[in-house]
Amino acid sequence: MSDTENRKLFVCYIPGADLRRLNPANAPYMAGLLQSYPMMVFTRGFPTTETLSTIITGARPNEHGVWQATLRSDGQLSWMDRVMDALPDPLTTTVQCVLYQLGRFGEMPTIPPRRRRRLEFRRVKFRGSADTSEMLTKVGDVESVFRIIGATECSYRFSDQFHARARLLQEAVSGTHKLEILQFHGLDVLSHWRLDNEQAVRQYYRLTDAFVRELHEKCQARGVTMVLSSDHGQETVRGTVDLRRALRGSGVPEDEYTVFIEVMMARFWFHSPAAREALTRVLSKTPHGRVAAFEEFGRYRMDLADGRYGEVFFLMDPGYTIFPHDFYHPVVNCYFGLKDWQQRRRAHNPRHYAYHGYATVCDAEKGFMTVLDHRYRTDGQEHELIDMAPSLLGLLGYPKPASMSGHPRFHR
Ligand SMILES: [Zn+2]
Fold it and tell me: pLDDT (tens digit, 9 = 90+) per residue, 145-192?
């Protein structure tokens, strides 16, 4: 049996860990690791906030299909639909949000019914911290690394609780899996809501640094190779744009277009040529963002064959967000503000303090993957997020499948 066949990998994946902050003052241990081990820096990602699907499949969002929403074809309205549409939006969305919390409602309860029924959601949402690698063997039609290696040989755990480190440390690095991924998401949540508090952020980085050191020591003790990775940093938010007000001001009736508004971009489908013309004009005059038709997405490393994910996009400049967006609802906002100490500031200011997932290449969008094994070196200069899955497979001795257009980047 060769060395790679025996190998076990533990991936400590920390979204939001910003390369600019992994310096000797904030994070001395991680800074040392990045200095002395082979590393690839992802300078090219995609305009999306949900990157796990790409990390585990090596496919782009439009290839695996997890990219928020597509347009649904219009169906007949039922009498119930008509009743719902006659009720005020704050009422229907509040009821939807309550039902959602009770586990009795589908995705995106924050969107009013008349707009929601036009959209088909393409999102992956994880809850709880159990091993969910079984559920992640495929994303859309694309096989993930968990399928290729075998779900029983893999483990994937998610935690968005920064204070769960002691428990996570205890559970992590079982040594029984070929590939174990821990997504430590608490730093990302804290960055979204507290990045303006420099002193607090430094403390979060120092605590994360100590956590990584302990995980690395456990890996060394158990003969497991550790991989440290982040897919993006966080850009401080300098301003917001009220896109809904701009849309209302256009005078275009709401039934002539469909919009889905994320924090860092909005996508549009037009149901009349007049709406397309008027709204494209409004968007092009809206500050802190740029308009891009789906045909132009090659420049954002995604070849969109048609307008299913959106005909026209409004992409915010790094450091600017759209507010209100489709994830915002006052009731939900209060709920999370009161329930989760990490998001407490939402209770009095629902706008994010930092964000990521921007289309423009900038320092906040840089990610990295480093293998804590001196026998490896990396190839290439510019790495992409789609290189991560084939690289993980390569480290375990598996060839990359045809569905992955990235490349294994670590070699002996
Ligand atoms: Zn985030």
Answer: 999 999 999 999 999 999 999 999 999 999 999 999 999 999 999 999
How much distance in Å is there from the Cα of 242 to the middle of ligand 1?
A: 21
CA distance 342 to 190: 6
* Residue 232 CA to ligand 1 centre (angstroms): 9
What global pTM score does this model have? 0.95
Check if the beta carbon of residue 274 is closer than 8 Å to that of residue 335.
no
Lowest mean pLDDT among 132-141, 163-172, 239-248, 400-409: 132-141
CB 91, CB 104: distance < 8 Å = no
Say how many Å lie between the CA of residue 362 and the centre of ligand 1: 16
pLDDT digits 0-9 by tens, 11-45: 999 999 999 999 999 999 999 999 999 999 998 88
Residue 268: name the closest of 68, 92, 84, 49 by CA: 68
Give SS3 for 315.
strand
Superfamily in which the 3-63+125-234+361-411 domain is placed by CATH = Alkaline Phosphatase, subunit A (3.40.720.10)
CA dihedral 19, 24, 27, 31 (to 10 degrees): 60
Give distance in angstroms: CA of 226 to centre of ligand 1. Answer: 23
Cβ atoms within 10 A of the Cβ of 340, count? 14
Fold of 238-351: Gyrase A; domain 2 (3.30.1360)
What is the tens place of the pLDDT at every residue in 106-127? 999 999 999 999 999 998 776 5
Domain ranges in the chain are 3-63+125-234+361-411, 75-117, 238-351
Residues with CB under 5 A from ligand 1 (ion): 188
